[in-house]
Design goal:
Strand content of chain A: 25-35%
Structural class of chain B: alpha/beta
Distance between the termini of chain A: 11 Å
Oligomer: heterodimer
Strand content of chain B: 25-35%
Distance between the termini of chain B: 9 Å
Radius of gyration of chain A: 16 Å
Number of strands of chain A: 12
Helix content of chain A: 10-25%
Chain lengths: 205, 255
């Protein structure tokens, strides 16, 4: 059973709706008791980094969730802020992220963006495969997703990167490190492309 | 290749889809949920839904309606109409709506600051309506185009950005429903004055209009009458360009 973590930040309903559409059951979890039933997690998120990490760590399920991912190695998919929280820290805030993936989250470098490219990066963008991943099965032909963000991770091209995107310059928008996965875009708002990605997460992990 | 959002704007009045002309005449089109389902099938980029019911500033938001819409839409939704406090914004966003659209409440500076702080600027959109007052030029109007604000379009847009608005829908009332093209000079002036995305709305009739609006400085384009209009035998007809057409006639042509 997929557990969509509800820590007061993010679009849990839309994710559950899309999973339902692809024939996958999911539960929205806001307390610790439901964690053991989950075999994988989705960590959504919208809004500011500090607000997000604070709310996540305050959530009653946090310790159990951390243990499930770090010790039991259950898969987790971070989305948007949920993706950014996986890293060590962000230029957006003062607090530390989860640090489950090495690297920082930085603001878009406006000096590298033409004047017509505004921040936040808001809209549909093509994504490029950087490494193999079961998350990307069936997404070979012109995959595109909906993005809305002002920050992105800075991790140098390395084994963790599975997807990149170009907005002025290339940046990492998808990672996979053992049982930890994350995407900068919103699969739950990316109709058929998002459905394929979420379906892959449900079936292949 | 730069992808540009092409956004259908649906006007709702008492739960029914309507089409407007210069904000005055409103023709009944049909069932909004049905329109959303069809746009979904056509893989539309994003939808803006605006409730323009006359009593929207007094009555509570119809959350059940919003929830219904969101459950059928697997693309981003921006919803507006009568939003005037943070509790409403919180509730609407929690239902799965991506962004809230503010218009009359744009004069409530504290609301904008609080909302953008709590939910992030990208979730708070300003819909700026522009029209031609009697003495000439262009002015900003709020509340279905009825209330004139003492601020030029450029100044108002800059103020919105400074307060934390993440995106501006620049709605040209004088072009609304006319199929005569966007107001390109207005788009250029406002987009040059701000660093947040600007969505052009009002007057679109062809993909070339979209292209010209983007070249003038818009980050995205929107249209109402162009995408949803009444067919001969009642019911709403949905029209949206195919991906390959958008690619060849718009994305690949942009500089």
């Amino acid at each position: 059973m997929i557990a969509i973590l509800d820590y007061g930040v993010g679009n849990v309903g839309s994710i559950k709706n899309m999973l339902k559409k692809v024939g996958q059951r999911a539960m929205i979890v806001s307390d610790a008791s439901q964690i053991p039933e989950a075999d994988k997690f989705i960590l959504p998120g919208v809004g500011a980094f500090d607000h997000g990490i604070r709310k996540l760590k305050e959530a009653p399920f946090f310790d159990y969730f951390e243990k499930a991912v770090q010790i039991e190695k259950k898969p987790v998919l971070g989305i948007c802020i949920g993706f950014q929280l996986l890293f060590e820290r962000s230029e957006e805030g003062e607090l530390s992220g989860l640090g489950w993936v090495r690297g920082d989250v930085i603001k878009f470098d406006k000096s590298q963006l033409a004047t017509k490219l505004k921040v936040p990066h808001m809209g549909w963008s093509d994504v490029f495969h950087e490494n193999q991943s079961k998350l990307l099965e069936g997404l070979e032909h012109d995959p595109r997703f909906y993005f809305v963000h002002s920050f992105h991770p800075e991790i140098n091209a390395n084994d963790d990167q599975i997807l990149s995107c170009k907005y002025g310059y290339k940046f990492t928008c998808g990672i996979e490190k053992e049982n930890i996965l994350g995407v900068q875009f919103h699969p739950e708002k990316s109709h058929k492309y998002g459905m394929k990605l979420l379906s892959n997460f449900a079936r292949n992990y | 290749m730069r992808r540009i959002r092409v956004i259908p704007t649906l006007l709702i009045q008492e739960g029914r889809l309507v089409k407007s002309l210069k904000f005055k005449k409103h023709d009944y089109l049909g069932d909004p949920i049905n329109a959303v389902k069809i746009f979904n099938e056509k893989e539309v980029d994003e939808l803006v839904l605006l409730d323009i019911s006359l009593n929207r500033h007094k009555k509570e938001i119809n959350y059940a309606f919003v929830e219904n819409i969101v459950s059928e839409a697997f693309m981003p939704i921006a919803f507006g109409g009568g939003i005037r406090n943070i509790q409403q914004i919180r509730k609407i966003l929690s239902l799965g709506v991506e962004k809230v659209v503010l218009n009359k409440s744009l004069v409530d500076e504290q609301l904008i600051k609080d909302a953008s702080f709590e939910f992030g600027s990208q979730s708070i959109v300003a819909s700026m309506d522009i029209n031609k007052p009697l003495f000439g030029g262009l002015a900003v109007y709020l509340d279905n185009g009825k209330k004139k604000i003492n601020s030029s379009p450029v100044d108002f847009a800059k103020q919105c950005e400074a307060l934390g608005i993440g995106e501006i829908i620049l709605n040209a009332i004088h072009k609304d429903g006319t199929y005569s093209g966007f107001d390109y000079r207005l788009i250029k002036e406002v987009s040059e004055a701000i660093s947040i995305p600007l969505v052009a709305l009002g007057g679109a009739s062809t993909i070339t209009d979209f292209y010209t609006a983007i070249e003038a400085g818009a980050s995205a384009v929107a249209a109402g009458s162009l995408f949803a209009y009444s067919g001969k035998r009642e019911g709403v007809l949905i029209n949206y360009p195919r991906q390959d057409v958008l690619r060849s006639e718009l994305y690949e042509k942009l500089s």
